[in-house]
Amino acid sequence: MKIVDAGYKLDLHIHSIYSKGKDKDKVNYNTLNHVGELVKKLTENGVQLCAITDHDAFGYDMYLAMKNYECKEGCSVVRVFPGIEFSVEFKGKSENAIVHVIAIFDNANIEKISKIESCFIDESGQPTYDCEMAFSEEKFLSILRKINLDTVLIAHQKNTLTSQNARKSDANSVGEERFQEFIYTDFFEAFEFKNKKNEIFNKSYAFSRGIVEDIRFITGSDCHDWRCYPKETVSDNSEFRYTYVKCLPTFRGLVMAITDYRRIKTVNSFFNPAETYLPSIIMTINGVDTEIPLSRGINVIIGDNSIGKSLLLHKITDYRKKQSKLLKPSIAKSYDKYLKQNGITIHSK
To answer: What pTM was estimated for this model as a whole?
Structure first.
């Protein structure tokens, strides 16, 4: 049983040598031989969920090398997701603009993951662009269909949404009309920013337009030199703050978190410390003690009819519903009789 008692720290925007086609010498150090050093940096920073997302490239061997460190002793990384940072040209009202889109894929089907790059790389090893150094929106969507894996899309957004000048490759560089379309059609699951000061302005933008539930923000390091992680490069002076997500460490859990702004925070605080809750259900069955851990959120008890769900709930609430029509005294007595006959004692109240 997996219980979420804290958020998971993530970084879904890290580059490797496979970004050399666009980043040139900036990523020279980030080779397979230095994966261990990156993992050490991730562990020093407590990163638990991560992805290598290279520019219009996917290194399957790099993914496997990172995945090899999952859940190892002394390593903070719990899950590595396959991913790519695509360059996509979107049509704006007045002109087209290239937006960087981070695609994170479901990690369940290793065979499909091994074939990701073949879906958009030609025989010479070059991306099959149909625009200048970018994929058209139609080509991008066709690539995702060809990859045929569930996908989370995160739009690049280094400048704040309130900035007068849209930054190159940011989601709002397509113009206000198309950007609003992105938001209201949920084209992207989230928008990525880096500078922690941007969080205030981005949330202010969302509140002022009444779109708090429609737009989600996460952070990514965009690291291009593993030696200075989590900085992007040696000269990077921005203030980076990690994002935490409230979820299980699975792709499905990641999707649930990134599509719900309440499950995303830049502080690891998802539960009210003053809130009363039952941490577990403790019972003895035929002399054997059993403890069932509970989440601080909603817990669901599932079972067929007459299997004991109501009995359990009434017993842990100490029959407080005795006087109501929901629980007659005779039923309470039969519950106690059943527990005694089957050697069951429920200790939690």
So the answer is: 0.85
